[in-house]
Write a structure and sequence with these properties.
The protein has eleven helices and four strands, in the order E-H-H-E-E-H-E-H-H-H-H-H-H-H-H. The chain has 263 residues and is of the alpha+beta class. The chain folds into two domains: 3-97, Conserved hypothetical protein from pyrococcus furiosus pfu- 392566-001, ParB domain (Alpha-Beta Complex), CATH 3.90.1530; 107-256, no CATH class. The chain has a four-stranded mixed sheet with strand order 1-4-2-3, covered by helices on one side. The N and C termini lie far apart (57 Å).
């Protein structure tokens, strides 16, 4: 059950509330300083914006305002709401815009930045067949994707920590890791293992993929993430079919870039 109360928050009370800040986004010092300056100029006005605390005593909204009270030493009257559900964070839109990764982080998901990117790509992929279609995937949709596909958390971690991220964006690694796993986990694991450690016969698609993407790092015209992802898909298809390749080129039609099982 939620409760709400307007109270005068002193620096001491603000420090206590901040101690409940378990998973919120990192503090933006410049934003805090701007609030301190506003307080010093007498511009702070009670407008109903709340300090929000969940039923498990987790501060999910208000850390910058509370930090400004502590830094300025000036008590401020604020509305405090307690007993909120943990997922209430997903609907909060404060003065400082929250990203989807902020939302996943506060719920407790690790590697939230990469995981959010993987969910965004996967959401677009399922809706259009193109992970780079540009459709907006909301934080609520991302949570739904994770609840339906728990392995996507593992793929987000894979993308964030795999050594191949020096040539392939973490989001591409995580997304392709998850989608390839849906197709065939054994081939997926073998493919990424060979991509990471090398080996295999000379015309193996993973070797050529690594060569293409490594060479692109020193080229004047850099590949976009969508192109790199298309190369990864193409190399995986060749790998699964055990097709020797001497050169690799992505299909001319974008509609064919992200088809699994294609030659």
């Amino acid at each position: 059950m939620t409760s709400q109360q307007i109270i005068l928050i002193t620096p001491e009370i603000a420090e206590y509330f901040l101690s409940l800040n378990k998973n919120n986004r990192p503090l933006n010092v410049r934003h805090v300083d701007s609030l301190v300056s506003a307080i010093g100029r007498g511009e702070w006005v009670f407008n109903g914006d709340a300090i929000r605390i969940t039923k498990s005593h987790n501060l999910i909204d208000g850390q910058h305002r509370l930090a400004a009270i502590v830094k300025s030493g000036v008590p401020i009257q604020m509305l405090v709401i307690r007993g909120l559900d943990e997922t209430a964070f997903l609907t909060i839109d404060c003065g400082k815009t929250r990203s989807s990764s902020d939302s996943l982080n506060v719920i407790g998901y690790k590697n939230s930045t990469t995981t959010a990117s993987v969910c965004r790509l996967y959401g677009n992929y399922k809706k259009t067949g193109n992970p780079y279609a540009g459709l907006r995937i909301t934080a609520h949709e991302m949570v739904d994707i994770i609840s339906q596909h728990e392995n996507i958390i593992e793929s987000g971690s894979f993308g964030a920590n795999n050594s191949s991220k020096n040539i392939i964006p973490s989001s591409v690694l995580g997304f392709s890791h998850f989608v390839f796993g849906e197709y065939n986990e054994v081939f997926r694991d073998e493919f990424f293992s060979m991509l990471e450690i090398g080996g295999g016969y000379a015309n193996n698609s993973t070797i050529l993929l690594k060569k293409i993407l490594t060479n692109n790092l020193s080229q004047r015209t850099k590949m976009q993430s969508a192109e790199k992802c298309a190369f990864v898909f193409m190399a995986f298809n060749k790998f699964v079919k055990n097709i020797p390749v001497k050169r690799q080129a992505i299909p001319k039609e974008r509609t064919d870039w992200f088809k699994l099982g294609a030659e």
